[in-house]
Amino acid sequence: MAGLTAASWPANAIPAPPDSSRVRQAHRRVVFQFDQRYSLLQNQLVGINGVKLAVEWRGRVRTGLGLYFLGSAVPVNAPLPPTVPAEALNRVRFRYAALYGEYVFLGTPRWELSTPVQVGFGRYYHRYESPDGSVYRSPKRNIWLIEPTVGGHMRVFRWLGVGAGGGYRQALLVEDKLEDDISGVVFYGRVKLFLGDLYKVVRGHERLFSQKGLRRADFAPKQ
User: Fold this and answer.
1) What is the C-alpha separation between 169 and 119, in angstroms, rounded?
2) Phi and psi (nearest 5°) for 157?
3) Are strands 74-75 and 89-107 parallel, antiparallel or unpaired?
4) Beta-carbon contacts of residue 128 (< 8 Å; ≥ 6 apart)
5) What's the CA gap between 220 and 200, in Å, rounded?
6) What are the Cα distances from residue 193, in Å, to 51, 147, 161, 209?
7) 75 exposed, middle or buried (CB, 10 Å; 0-12, 13-18, 19+)?
8) For the chain, how far is it from start to end, CA to CA, in angstroms?
9) How far apart are CA 137 and CA 135, in angstroms?
10) Separation of alpha carbons 45 and 150, rounded Å
11) Model-level pTM greater than 0.90?
């Protein structure tokens, strides 16, 4: 079947309006971000520090790898082993690597909303502190984590964005009590470096702190 040409297109046809609900880029981009996560565990605000490196396709899908570690040990109520004094304080430390995927469902070149989901695998151990100052450590064990969230960011410059989000962290394949202790609501702040755009700005000798491409007039559909 022959394709429609400009001459054969119906004169009264109404072109579809441009889709402004998503940001589309024809090329891939590399994204690096600092990812600071927080949870309220045992009535204590706990920070989890992380970094991520990802590849972005067409401005809509990102996939990559993240590395995370606890900023401080988490107090838990899991049972103490028989060899540890009954009055010892039970704390847990863990670190993990995560594969993640992120889909941008709404946005412009200036801002976006997305649904990141990551699955992590790592190691954890208990640290038992007795009143007399003695410290005991358990053997390291495996831990799995899954974290679905919703987040967003705004670009301050073409190559730099800041954002925030929230969701839930679920621990898997650990003892039941510990699973309850470290699973919970998670919220985060992030700083994102768009390395591909930074490279283009530097290579093209453009102004580093320019708003080029981020103003509404640069991307709004022409009437």
Assistant:
1) 10
2) -130, 175
3) antiparallel
4) 80, 84, 85, 88, 89, 90, 91, 135, 136, 137, 138
5) 22
6) 11, 22, 7, 13
7) middle
8) 33
9) 7
10) 20
11) no
What gap in Å lies between CA 29 and CA 176, rounded to an integer? 41
180 φ/ψ angles, rounded to the nearest 5 degrees: -70, -35
Find tokens 């009264």 and name the residue: 12
Local confidence pLDDT in tens for the 223 residues of the chain? 434 333 333 444 444 444 444 455 556 788 898 888 888 777 778 888 999 999 988 878 999 999 998 877 788 877 888 888 888 888 888 899 999 999 999 988 899 999 999 999 999 898 888 888 888 888 899 999 999 999 999 999 999 999 999 999 998 877 777 788 788 899 998 898 888 889 889 999 999 998 888 887 776 666 5
Neighbours of 196 (CB within 10 A): 17
- Counting other chains too, the contacts that 5-9 makes at CB distance below 8 Å and 24 or more residues apart are none
Q: What is the DSSP string of 13-37?
A: --PPPP--SS---SS-EEEEEEEEE
Instruction: Round to whole Å and give the CA distance between 75 and 94.
Output: 12
Which tokens belong to 58?
A: 């067409």
Q: Copy the structure tokens of residue 171.
A: 């621990």
Structure tokens at 85: 């004094």
The Cα 4–Cα 12 span in angstroms is: 15
Query: Which two three-digit tokens encode residue 165?
Result: 């989000």
Residue 132 corresponds to which amino acid? D
